[in-house]
Fold these 2 entries.
Entry 1:
Amino acid sequence: MSAGALRCDDFEALAPEVALGTLSGTERADAVAHLASCPDCQRRVTELADVVDTMMLLAPEEEPSPRLEAGVLAQTVADGTSSRRHDRGRRWWLLAGVAAAAIGVAVTAMLLTSGDRDDELRTALAVTDGGASVCRAIINEVDPAWLFVSLEGPADEASEEYLVELHLDDGDAVRVGVLEMVDGRGALAVTVDLDGSTARAVRLIGGADEAQYEATFS
Amino acid sequence: MWDVADDVLLASFAVGDPEAGAVFVQRYQRRVFGLARSIVDDRVLAEDLAQEAFVRAWRHASSYDPRRGSVESWLLTIARNVALDARRSRRNGAGGDRIVDHVEQLLARDGDPASTAEQREELQRLVLALRQVPAAQRRALVLAAIGGWTAREVSTREGIPLGTAKTRIRSGLLALRELLGAEHEWEPQ
């Protein structure tokens, strides 16, 4: 097949660089023009691009600062509600169906309690043992608030579960649930019947009834 | 929530569920940030780019097609594109040694650091295939595919003619495609 200024056999030499996205200038323009009208070469480039996509799994891992997570959530949760609110209700119910089918009623219920809010988020982080254990918490500043707490620890973590306490500015403490650890990881998401802006810190109480992690909200 | 399948987690994140968003970011942030830093070699910029990648994934989640690959490789492709745009505007070619050394170490050791069965299987298949690609082609391909280096940049870095750099990248990618097995054979008309 021939399409545009290039023939398919000319395009063949360019296909890898098209798939890699490293072609530039005139060659790129010619390649794009050819692709626009050549299904065979489109398929060829798609196959090569899929290989390139798979290679991304080789990328090195590196721990970013906590501001990455907070920044993403601030943009997607806070900004997203204004532009996406119009169809949120319908999509929640679609999602509920998908989630129920895939992972059961418990998660569905948690998703449905998340609500549709434009609130400020506050984050907390506690790192112990030189990064071997990381406790994160996120809360929004409304009443009632939702709280998400996660813990990544060593696989041989001493406690299999932790009582989660929310400590408030006035000195009071509220036990909000239990975080269960599986293979060194655990998470808890709950709605708490208080104003999230009054939360000062989260504490995780271990087996000896001692606070093993404390993360203070920013 | 930790055990939720990747595609369900992405869907939950996409409709604005904050818990799903937090888990989604925590699940992938090390790899997304690591990839971005490999491309721009600047920690602060890499965090900004990683953040942009997550926001784009959230915004365009409906474009994810599970038939073409995992959520992780889709997200990493977004991160790569975001980082490459930034890298081109800065015209720097940093990070090459870091990427090549990392991949070679990955190929040299047994086992892999992937955390899920799906990731392990996909990565293991890739590692086995890459080991069979000649080293010079593999190095050029890794620089181009993961680092986003152009053939001209690979040529300069490796001290080889531009034509040789192009041939190594092209041959490496075609060999890897062959080893991974494409669904369709293709011959130019």
Note: The longest strand of chain A covers residues 121-128.
Entry 2:
Amino acid sequence: MTLTARTFRHGIHPEGHKESTADLPIRRMPFGDRFVLPLSQHAGAPAKPVVRPGERVARGQVVAEAAAFVSSTIHSPVTGTVTDLGLRHHPNGRLVDAIEVDADPFSSQEVRLPAPAPWREMSDEEFVEQVQRAGLVGMGGAAFPSHVKYKVPAGKQIRTLILNGCECEPFLTTDHRTMVERPEAVLAGAHIVATRLGAEETVIGVELNKPAAIEALRGAIPEGAPVRVVPLKVKYPQGAEKMLIEALFGLEIPSGGLPLDVGMLVNNVGTMAALHDYFETGLPLIERVVTVAGPGVERPANLLVPVGTPVRAVLDFCGGLLPRTREVILGGPMMGMPMASLDVPVLKGTSGILAFTEAETRLPTEYSCIRCGRCVEACPQFLNPSRLARLARAGRWEDMERSFVKDCVECGSCSFSCPSGIPIVQLIRVSKSAIRDRDS
Amino acid sequence: MAEKTPNLLVQASPFLRQGLTTPRVMADVLWALVPLLAMAVWYFGIGGLLVVAAATAGAVGTEWLFGRRMAGVRLADGSAAVTGVVLGLTLPPGLPLWMAFLGGVVAVGLGKLVWGGLGHNLFNPALVGRAFLQAAFPLAITTWVAPAGWTAVRQSNFALPFMQPTGDAVTSATPLNLMKFEGAETAPGALLAGDVAGSLGETSAGLILLVGAFLVLRRAFDWRIPVGIIASVAVFSALPWLIAPERYPSPLFMLLSGGLLFGAVFMATDPVTSPVAPLGAWIFAVGVGLLVVLIRLWGGLPEGVMYAILLMNAATPLIERVTQPRAFGHRRREKEAA
């Protein structure tokens, strides 16, 4: 099977490091006292608050509404009181507007959620609006509002719904556990989306290092349903949308294009389970599975965490950080964000909290580029990263654009594979943002 | 709100890296050169070791002295040592030590540092050093001696700068000289073992193939380059040989003699001076193979590996330009700025 499994071209093979949490069932983390809900925890416009300090809110109640089409709804993760609207630290390091909610210590946090809308009976517009209302965003990390993908422009048709179960980032096991424990929810969510959009087939890409997930999904597919699970070779960044489509179908999405252009739609498996939960029980996106792992964590775990819970509280629940911890990362080790402080909240897009020690965080000594070509062989977008890094150092933005810097997905495979320790992807990221600033 | 927080590092992702580092690649190459060095001493004597040491001292000393103030130049990357040892192994055993030292100085100074240091040079530094010696001291660099056992040290090694070396050594023709000027082909067995006259590290074809395989397994360089050179030399030299076997050497002799294998494994593979893209590597390798055959069979010199590689080094930026891989999601190779 390994020999015949599909994959994309180029890419890298980092060690998986998933063994510490892969077999740990998802546990619910107890509700804390205080929750911070940044208005911007999705791609697009920040949400608009609709509550005031002092106001009582119920778990699942809307506290901020989508401010634009590409924006999302935010709900209170607990029953309690809004204590403040003000600036709080976002995990990305910026101070952003946020809503602070204190949990009611006497509430059981069990609430009667509003009855879910019957998804089969609504119009397409209503469906898109409902998904936005549910606060659903891509849970693989990018946090792109899901409903935007479901508004298919006239003249386009989604034929294939692709579920992303790759979880190619090392350490993370949230999608893995979701697929193993809730395959029916994943498939039911996919069924809703496929039915609503008229997709003929659903294809689930799962890497071969998750045999239990492949088995669970296959076992849960209803007889005769047009759903396939396709095992993929283990390779990073297979979970990148374009790479996943190449792996599954051998298709190249044109530069600047979307999966929609070839009649496809890619959704993360966790997002599908959350969508199912909303249409089944009325539960909006107010909690998510987070993998807590890494050599700096006392007791690694897969936790169901209310959105807005401080990272510090999650780590404390796992026995706290070991003294030798040097770095805490939200997300995976390839594309995640380093934390300057633990007093930031878990967001809708937070897939993992990883604590690394001295051994993993030692900065590599930088040597001259010897043009060995390892970054070129690693780049899934078939760019020349060493050249882009050289141009970045010289500030030659136009030349970088001519070398297709905008196609870079910032997966970090180049930096990973560079024997000279050159921070290639960081140089590219900085240049891309300089180019964006220049253009705006 | 500030409980005790550990001091957290904030670095840019990715937070994982593979284990290979540039100094380790260089160290692999140096380790691979050790058996060749031992073989050189075994055949040509301690004097050979001194020649390599002098070239290495020149190379490393120059890197240290002039590279100290240059951004990005680090002695610790090991590249100057590799240049010095590789250069030393391409020199004749009886070469005066001061010439070998000067060759090392030129290799790193003119071959690398004036370009901006490691990674910026157009030509293979060791070959720049060797080409300089060939131009400056044409007699000394073509004075070959026969293997004489590991204790041999030649008086000519200790000739003073700019004095004519005293000709004490019994000179001997290399297999390529014998072929070029007398039409005699040395037996493959002797060429594999290396018990023939020639440059210090180039004579034992068998040993070079062995350490070359080690380096390929360690992924120290692009395997396409040595494979492409060997294959193209075999093909290009087979054509005249098949037509007139009495006039032209056999492909096997072409492959095993002279500096071909040493150059294919240790010099053409220098990643800095060869194309990065796989297609480019094949073009580069076939170019080297073709030039070696042309120079050896129809040129004035018995050996052509050095000039073949230097010429293809010069062609590398051009090859690089036309062999950029097609970027993902773009229809064809769209033109890139150089």
Note: Chain A has a mean pLDDT of 94.
